[in-house]
Automatic annotation (TrEMBL):
Record has tRNA processing as a keyword: no
UniProt keyword Flavoprotein, yes or no: yes
Domain Luciferase-like, first and last residues per copy: 13-257
GO molecular function, one term: alkanesulfonate monooxygenase activity
InterPro entries with a match to the protein in the record: Lucif-like_OxRdtase_Rv2161c, Luciferase-like_dom, Luciferase-like_sf, SsuD_RutA_monooxygenase
SUPFAM superfamilies linked: Bacterial luciferase-like
Coiled coil: none
Protein name (record): F420-dependent oxidoreductase
Record key words, sorted: Flavoprotein, FMN, Monooxygenase, Oxidoreductase
GO biological process: alkanesulfonate catabolic process
Length: 297
């Protein structure tokens, strides 16, 4: 199965000089089908909303690389791997800059960008960038409108939420329109996926935290709702992230990955190595082991 992995953008491995480039290059050579990033601006000491499953924030988030920089580095040292995000907190960025960043990375990678977007959940991060958290839903809808225009029109003008783009020539276009995948399980988020996205970003846990039919039934509903909205339900893709608890054996991860792929049949799947390794060397060793085990499966 085509299996991808997270780039070392969090934790001790993220602080390794040249680590992202080394991992991206060697992981692709080993057979990684995709290289993925997450997005964490802050790791508050006393968060208003703790990270799910924690009383505070995971130690790994104390060290966090910029996701766009990481994707650009990976684009420069690889040739075939999908370059994805699951997820970038899109509404925490200035929209015009965000559109230019995505376009530039897609061009640099020769059309390999898969932008997975979300709206985040941290009040401290929204306060840090000066964006009202209460506006995140409408800001995401606005951003999707802007990206559609930015990627399809040579002359761009846009009245956005809290900003205005004067009529401007925007000649840099992506190699192909990047397939935007959106995260979320809430009613409004899922409606947005069905009506506007190219794909969905579910998450699977090892050990299992919920039955697989939570994903399969939600996906079936998403595709039915997409058809009701006049879209081709078969065109709605799935990019599945697999999170494993610290200390989980590679064999258990590989077995769970094989099983969930059979049930969901995702277009893309990647294992998040953030909580499993603490160095680029361990990142690479586990990547090779999981590729070997899933190939056997």
């Amino acid at each position: 199965m085509p299996l991808g992995f997270s780039l070392p953008v969090f934790g001790k491995a993220a602080a390794t000089p040249g680590g992202i480039a080394r991992y991206a290059r060697e992981a692709e050579r080993a057979g990684a089908a995709g290289l993925w990033v997450g997005d964490r601006l802050l790791s508050p000491v006393a968060p208003t909303v703790p990270y799910p499953g924690y009383d505070t924030m995971p130690e790994e988030f104390h060290t966090a690389q910029d996701p766009f920089t990481a994707l650009a580095i990976a684009a420069a040292v690889t040739e075939t791997a999908v370059l994805g995000s699951s997820t970038i907190n899109a509404t925490q960025y200035q929209p015009a800059n965000f559109a230019r960043l995505l376009t530039s990375i897609d061009v640099a990678s020769n059309g390999r960008l898969l932008p997975g977007l979300g709206i985040g959940w941290s009040p401290e991060e929204y306060a840090a960038v000066g964006v009202p958290m209460s506006e995140r839903g409408k800001r995401l809808d606005d951003l999707l409108d802007l990206l559609e225009t930015w990627w399809s029109e040579d002359t761009v003008t846009h009245e956005g939420v809290g900003y205005r783009i004067a009529e401007s020539n925007v000649a840099l276009k992506p190699v192909r329109k990047p397939p935007i995948h959106l995260a979320g399980f809430g009613e409004r988020s899922l409606r947005r996926v069905a009506e506007r996205a190219d794909g969905w970003l579910p998450v699977w846990a090892v050990p299992e935290q919920f039955p697989a039919d939570v994903i399969t039934s939600t996906l079936a509903k998403l595709r039915a709702d997409a058809e009701k909205a006049g879209r081709d339900p078969r065109a709605l893709g799935v990019a599945l992230r697999v999170n494993a608890d610290p200390g989980t054996a590679p064999e258990a991860i590989a077995e769970s990955v094989t099983r969930i792929v059979e049930l969901v049949n995702p277009d893309h799947i990647f294992v998040d190595l953030t909580y499993l390794t603490s160095s680029v060397e361990e990142h690479l060793d586990l990547t090779g082991r999981l590729l070997e085990l899933t190939a056997k499966g």
